[in-house]
Amino acid sequence: MKISGLSVVRVRVNHRGDWIFVHLETDEGIVGLGEASHGGFSPQRDQIVTTILEAQCAPVLLGMDPRAVTAASEALQPLVDGLAAATAVSACEQALWDIAGKAAGVPVYRLLGGPVRARIPLYANINRAVRERTPEGFARHAKEAVAEGFRAVKCAPFDGMEQRRAQESDQRDRVQLGIACVAAVRDAVGPTIDCYVDCHSKFDLPTAHMVARELSALGVRWFEEPIPTEDRDGLRTLRSHVHDLGMELIGGELLYGVAGFLPYLTPRLFDLIMPDVKHCGGIAATVAIGNVADACGIAVAPHNPSGPVSMAASAHVAAALPRVRPLEHAWGEVPWRGALLTPSERIEDGMYVLPDTPGLGIALTDTVVGAHRA
Questions:
Q1: In whole angstroms, what is the distance from residue 163 CA to residue 151 CA?
Q2: H-run or E-run covering 335
Q3: What is d(CA 374, CA 365) in angstroms, rounded to the nearest whole number?
Q4: What distance in Å separates the CA atoms of residue 195 and residue 272, rounded to the nearest whole number?
Q5: Alpha-helical runs (H) found in the chain
Q6: What is the DSSP secondary structure assignment for residue 37, as one 8-state letter?
Q7: Beta carbons of 317 and 112 less than 8 angstroms apart
Q8: Domain spanning 3-105, CATH architecture
Q9: 210 close to 190: Cβ distance less than 8 angstroms
Q10: Grouped pLDDT means (10 residues each) for the chain, 374 residues
Q11: Which of 23, 195, 232, 353 is deepest in the core (most CB within 10 A)?
């Protein structure tokens, strides 16, 4: 079996960007599927990812045996020189596993040694669904997610923050608005639902200390990416402060490979890491990162504010890891999400139901792709 082609499918989602999917075709008719969304923060970056896939990844992969996933993935490694390329390579790796599973007639999680669990616990990231960026808007969507069975919700309410201006008056107002949004979510969902807060690395260290105190008083224990990941000295100081407040410091969504995570794992700069199957190297890389983190006594919860193909790939990973925290789900982003796949994505009572069909167990639905193609 040889790889005979690569094609990119871009689906228009909303103001937050597109979903980018990759098809790897073979000379035996088996097609692999992967996701390369969010490889940047603008439509221009999406185009860069697409160009890397078509102009750089495809020439490397053409003619290779896709069932030799490690060899094909290693051949792509010299292309990785930033987030866009890492995302492109990670998507191809997902598609290789999809083909390998289909060729073997088994789900990908069985090739990885799973499943440890048949249903994957999820938490609802409501951030992409909230267009009314007010305490009322966040609270309403959080309550709706809980009504669907989710036992944890996450929001990222610190809009417009700029780290370099964190002490200016308008920035302080934005911090207080963000805290008010979290307080409204907590009131809406009650004390038994976990409330996670993502800060998108928008704070300097003094602001992160202050926000941690405020969120701790609201019963928030998940404190995600408050300062830039590159600031390891700051993370070390902040983690001690966060622990005193009974919170966990979370991060690592854009790191690549085991080598990228090691400087954070061995000194235990995070309590929990969030490798993203779209950015960290793909499925095998996420499993490897998870196992190393587990050996270091650090928890793992895959980062996944993404489309349904990334969800499927992340779920296969979560099914293979012995210990894993709930997987992220981009709740409520578009009403047609479930119909984009055949068979439709199954989420029941806040749990992702694993397919038992070969590969990732999914395919894009042509009619829905056609209706929303970018």
A1: 32
A2: none
A3: 15
A4: 15
A5: 43-52, 58-61, 69-76, 83-104, 108-111, 135-147, 169-189, 205-217, 232-244, 257-265, 283-295, 308-320, 366-372
A6: -
A7: yes
A8: 2-Layer Sandwich (3.30)
A9: no
A10: 98 89 98 94 86 98 98 98 97 98 98 97 97 97 98 96 78 94 98 97 95 98 97 97 97 98 97 98 98 98 97 98 97 95 96 97 97 93
A11: 195
14 in helix, strand or coil? strand
Chain position carrying tokens 């909303």: 14
Q: For residues 141 and 129, what is the distance between their CA atoms, to the nearest angstrom?
A: 7
- Residue labelled with tokens 């490979």: 257
Tell me how long the chain is. Answer: 374
Structure tokens at 240: 């001690």
Whether the full predicted model's pTM is greater than 0.85, yes or no, is yes
Two tokens, residue 22 = 């990759």
CA distances (Å), origin 252, targets 32, 69, 224, 225, 281: 27, 25, 9, 8, 13
Name the fold adopted by 110-357. Answer: TIM Barrel (3.20.20)
Contact 333, 134 (CB under 8 A): no
